[in-house]
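> agent: user asked for a holo structure of the chain below bound to adenosine-5'-triphosphate. Plan: (1) validate sequence alphabet, (2) canonicalize SMILES, (3) run complex prediction with ligand conditioning, (4) return tokens. Step 1... ok. Step 2... ok. Step 3 dispatched.
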Amino acid sequence: MNAHYSTSSFGRDCKIQKALKKIFGFDSFRTLLQESAVKEVVKGENDVFICMPTGAGKSLCYQLPAVLAIGITIVISPLIALIQDQVDHLLVLKIKVCSLNSKLTIQERKKILIDLQSEKPQIKLLYITPEMAASVSFQPTLNSLLNRNLLSYLIIDEAHCVSQWGHDFRPDYLRLGSLRSHIPQTPCIALTATATKQVQDDIIDSLKLKQPVAMFKTSCFRSNLFYDVQFKELLTDPYGNLNDFCLKALGEKNSTGGYTGCGIVYCRTRDACEEVAFQLSFRGLKAKAYHAGLKTADRTTIQNEWMEEVVPVIVATISFGMGVDKANVRFVAHWNIAKSMAGYYQESGRAGRDGKNSSCRLYYSRNDRDQISFFIKRDMAKRQGKRGSLKTYDKASMVGFEVMVNFCEQLECRHAAIARYFGDEKPLCNKSCDCCLNPGGVNKQLDLLQSLTDRGKTCIRAAEVSQGPFGNDPELYDGGRKGYGFARYDEDCDGDDEEASEHRKKEWNQFYQQQMKLRKGTELEKKEFIPPEPFCPLKDASSQKIPKLTVKAREHCLKILEEALSSNLQKDGAASRWRRSTKPPKLALCTQYWDQGLVSPQQQMRNHLPWKKTSSLHPSCIRLNPSGLVLDIEGFVDSFRLLLNC
Ligand SMILES: Nc1ncnc2c1ncn2[C@@H]1O[C@H](COP(=O)(O)OP(=O)(O)OP(=O)(O)O)[C@@H](O)[C@H]1O
Ligand SMILES: [Mg+2]
Ligand SMILES: [Zn+2]
């Protein structure tokens, strides 16, 4: 018995059409390529490589064949969140699908395994992560399916993760090559939206796809997307510009007062997300920040509000959007330059999935460029220091970034630049980008940018990059929090993260052991608390690597700070100007700015510059009770600086 659907070619085509309508609810295939790919996969004779733009409908190319096949299809996908979206979507269609992952309860897991072991399993698609595929516990299930000839297909979604030249390289994807060798008779289907020739070759090699591989590849060109770049340093009011862009892209409001579409603004840091969301809301456009620093429940609420268009604009780190299949995204703006062209293409490609005209704008700044390039180089140097040599992946991140910089700084059709990167023919842009629509205007902007740089106004040399008062930038790439199911897309797997994660693990273990002792009633050893010196260098508090900065020490300093604040308050009755309107948490960050020499609190007040929220403060920073304590700003700053010895 073959695990695939086998009948005559005509009968097969009829079954495919029927399933397309009856099960998936589509009248026709989206494109001829989608149709041919589905038919090829259903035949089950060859390994297949599918590269189609984001939102082109790649999933159907394996989901429909999986439903028609006799056996079970295993789908490897990089993120649990992404898997969950696919599973939910298929369950709505009443397709028997499930996912084996670490978040299941024992009971749920048992139920799935019983079905998979049964003579006639009900499950048609089984979604797993690459880690699960390689795990020892999964091997008996895999072997059992294989021995009973019940394995229909091995699907590798987001296959670019296998390539060190891809923008989301995942070492675990490399292990899929041995999985593939273990099941050579099962057709393997690799799918991606972003594959240069190099990445494509890597996928075919690493996944050991059998030649001849059936290739289904379309141009990456999306004619409904209008691309443009704005130069932040040349804008007098960047937030106003962003606001206008969002409003224009969202179009007219409908009869109920809402917009018919929505948009995404991507920012590099959580802090920037908060700021941009604030700035848009301040200008009357409903926008909410979404990042890993928020509680899971808050993130879910915000995502739902955006999905339902209650909040039309979501301002997010790049963790947001994977697996979110929303058709009417009218714009994607990048408030900061993307880290690679492939990443930018995928992120901006979340616009206009319904085929309607949509806009993609990138706000470019040379400060940004220099900062990112500084951090990429620093990471490369660190890796080189550790390993003695640079790996492909290290170099790839710099190369990918340089392509992105050229994209912004060259007068070339944006679509053509993207197409060249992916090795496609130059597309017919038809004025769907700023360079084709108004080359003179873009050229003028580029000249202006250059003249600013020549006068030394914009370009921060890498070595001079401000690292903040705490000596590092924990917010870069969104901090690298693990365990949220979307770590891949907003963190760099560099040494820092490994160390930080080790450190967190140790802290957690200690905490856990203490709690267990408490539960057992065991006396904890009483450690004598030695308060830190009055001038201890607390300013390094944002670094996770300070070994001696305990919770107790922080509480101690907080107490001193609170005392200093209230004595200031009593002392300086004349500071009423700022009373009631100024809250300590905001001021806390204000001093951070001042320390960086960026702007003084007074300037900030005078210019009515917006306050930042304390969410940007690192957890180990001192947090003040936001009780609305009224205080004199200079006194506050003095006491704060005194305390922090800076
Ligand atoms: N033949 C079709 N007719 C109408 N809609 C379709 C068809 N095929 C797929 N779609 C819809 O297109 C949308 C995008 O499909 P899908 O999620 O498979 O995209 P994708 O190519 O995997 O994109 P990404 O690279 O972002 O993962 C889905 O909402 C899907 O239901
Ligand atoms: Mg997909
Ligand atoms: Zn163009």
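> agent: step 4 complete. Summary for user: The pocket of zinc ion (ligand 3) is lined by residues 413-415, 429, 432-433, 435-436 (CB under 6 Å). The first strand starts at residue 48 and ends at 51.
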